[in-house]
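Discussion board: Methods & Data

I've been asked by a reviewer to show the raw model output for two of the constructs in my manuscript, not just the figures. I'm not sure how much to include, so I'm pasting the format here to get opinions. Each protein appears as its amino acid sequence followed by a line of discrete structure tokens. Is this the kind of thing reviewers expect to see in a supplement, or should I convert it first? Here is construct A:
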Amino acid sequence: MINILMIEDDPEFAELLAEYLAQYDIKITNFEDPYLGLSAGVKKYDLLILDLTLPGMDGLEVCEEVVRKYDIPIIISSARSDIQDKLDGFEIGADDYLPKPYDPKEMYARITSLLRRYSKSKDSDKSISPKSDFEFKGDTLYFKKVALSLTPAEFEVLSLLVKHIGITQSREQIINTAGTMSIDSQGKSLDVIISKIRTKLGEHNPEDSKRIQAVRGVGYKLV
């Protein structure tokens, strides 16, 4: 059984999701109070679903504390539509962001995909450090100590690849994560964004433009 910790102040919403996921042998334990959620033994759970608008403590603060203390994948689930909240969540260390309202089927897909990728990441012994050349400072991403001039969409895409360096991200995962991308032409938009990021990474050394590799039929990965 997959055990998921949920911190969500809407009990009816949490119950509906719990009932749907139960058919897939996934158990949701929800806490409306973020302080109770943090004291519930986070490390015994497989994944955290986190709302942002919580009583007494902002969800981004909860996310920051969990990332600092525990090694657990985090999906932010929020009705807050501010793109900055999304960017802040990824910068702090959240692994996925699913805006409300959403179909429980999509949450199930996100959960299984994230746990699969997380398991592979844990099992693989990689010598590459995600922070060797990339560094976040506020809303700016630095590459080899030089600030990159990125559009919001480029920042979202590259941030996701940096967070999962060495792990292939499917086109669907990247598009779903990058909320600023064009809805009408997502596939083409993603290819254009990747091309522009490659150019910016290779401004001083053309070899650096090859760090983002295309995985045929799947998506992209940063190496």
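Construct B, same format:
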Amino acid sequence: MIQNTDSVKAISLSKILVVLIGFPIIATLISLLLLNRQLITNIGLDFFNTFWIIIIGWYLIQIYIVSRILHSAGWKWVDIGFSFSKKKTFFFIGGYLFFAFGLLAFIEIALANSIVDPEKMNNISSLTPKTTLARIIFIIMGLTAGLSEEIIYRGFAIRAMVSNKINNWFAVIAATFPFIFQHGLKSIDQFWWFLTWGIVFGILFIWLKNLTYNIIIHWLVILTAMIAILQVIK
């Protein structure tokens, strides 16, 4: 359960702006690799496997930076809606991995016992993991993405702004736009997709005052990208 922000020290607006402006800028710069894939392929690495690993590293760095900001302000994880102890966090993450790798097993069995349409494989989204290794890396990416984005753009951003006497609903909107650019905007459809989810997740957080359900739903949304590979089955 979230603690009342009146009982904790307000996080400085400068630190909030560093997170809400700096993080999306770095994420957008990383996304530019999608336009310059030869920077990775020219050194003999698979582009998407390497890209997802870079993303995983960036998500972990973001969590670490926010944890230091919280610590410096005297905040605890519970103050931003993450109420699990270390033991419960272990089982929470374990539950995700159990489900995700169960889904992976289902996909692998389905593909192994079916005929794959090469034309459909060529036309499927380039961001859909197409190999077993890519899907394993994608699962880890999904784990860190769900945790990081909900901790930063819901728990931290909204509660930190509220601690500065900013209205809840304005905080939801203000946190949604950095969340959009966190993903590297490539089309207007993506803008509306992330805008919608940003507002939905923000409202859910304000309503439930807990990040648990946000993270679970976020994980499930990410994992749907793995299921997309089943479209290639004849």
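Answer (T.O., handling editor elsewhere):
This is acceptable in a supplement if you add a one-line summary per construct. For B, something like: The chain has one domain: 12-232.
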